[in-house]
Amino acid sequence: MDLSNYVPSSSTSGPPVTWFSQATESLCARMSLQQPTDRPAAPCVLSYLNEGGANFVFRIQPQACQDPNMQLHGRVPLLRIRKDLSHVQTAEEQLRSFDQHFKPLFSAQNLVEHEAVQLDDHVIPRLNQTVSQAKRSSSRTGDLMPNNEKYGLLITNMSPWPMETLVQFKPKWLSQSPNAPEEAKRCRTCALRAQRQANNQRTATDAQDNCPLAMISESAHDRRRAAEATTTDKKLQDYLVDDAQPLLRALKENQQRFDSSGVLGIVDNDVLSDICKAMSLRDCTLFLKHGHRGVEARLSDLDLKQPEKLDKWRAVEEVLINEGWYQNREAEEVWREEKVCLLSTRYP
């Protein structure tokens, strides 16, 4: 899910819903799906915030919440509930996957945390009515939540307060695809951007016009240029150039560790499992928030990709290779000189 989904926007808010949640443990502590308690339900008002391809996110209105302990990192959290789509894991599976596969890879201060919360039976049907009345992307108006969903996830609220600056972007592929041809003039992210551009397609990541390899370049000049393309906030630019490097390099190293050979030659289920982790790490989002306490950096959207996507990943890789997008040798009628990718300066 794109991080912009977490930024409050009055234009996307639907009618509020009163939420009676039965927490599995104290909301001010780590929750466990295996340790239910008799703690009474806490009525809160929810309002639709936004959505991604797999989940809805709702804002919890603190002034209407009767649970004073509902805090996550000192702030009222957001509530995330999965969509009723076959490829989307349940909240329990999402939490288990996050804890098992991704949480051990990074410092807690650099992750959007997840905590489980149990929902009363009437909550989802009412929320489905709410989202149906909200202003949404036309491509997602048919998406709803499963009426039998019992759990949601409380997630760290990174919405900026007044006088704070929030930047959100996907670092994407921080190293070249293992299947890319030698002497490529585009990295995997830039090759896909160019291919989509030729088909008049443009995602939020494409709009950044930025090369991920530049963001972790050994050259401070390259990193500065990438930072300036990402944000106009001087403090966040400085952070990306220097202090963010350990986090970004950890992200890169784990992408490489879980995918050393690429998607085209997978024959082993264990390798496929690791590829799914690598692809998840290549599609996560980074929050950078500049406030009076300095800069806060957290990775989000670490939902494990499913093996069913393998055919799609292979098809994308084959197109990028066979049509010359990696080497900037695409068909003449759509050819454009590559000027964004860091690799284009290596093999002019």
Helix content bin: 25-40%
Number of domains: 2
Query: Which descriptor suits the 3D outline?
Result: globular
Largest sheet at a glance?
A: 6 strands, antiparallel, barrel
* Low-pLDDT runs: 1-40
- Radius of gyration, in angstroms, nearest whole number: 21 Å
- SS field, number of helical segments: 10
Q: Would you tell me the structural class of the helices and strands?
A: alpha+beta
Descriptive account of the structure:
There is one protein chain. The protein is of the alpha+beta class and 348 residues long. It folds into two domains: 27-155, 2-Layer Sandwich (Phosphorylase Kinase, domain 1), CATH 3.30.200; 165-346, no CATH class. 29% of the residues lie in helices and 17% in strands. The protein has ten helices and nine strands. It has a six-stranded antiparallel barrel. The protein has a three-stranded antiparallel beta sheet with strand order 7-8-9, with helices on one face. Strand 2 (42-51) and strand 3 form a beta hairpin. The longest helix is centred in the C-terminal third of the chain and has 14 residues, at 245-258. The radius of gyration is 21 Å and the shape is globular. Its EC number is 2.7.1.158. GO terms for molecular function: ATP binding; inositol-1,3,4,5,6-pentakisphosphate 2-kinase activity. One of its GO terms (cellular component) is nucleus. This is Inositol-pentakisphosphate 2-kinase. Belongs to the IPK1 type 1 family.
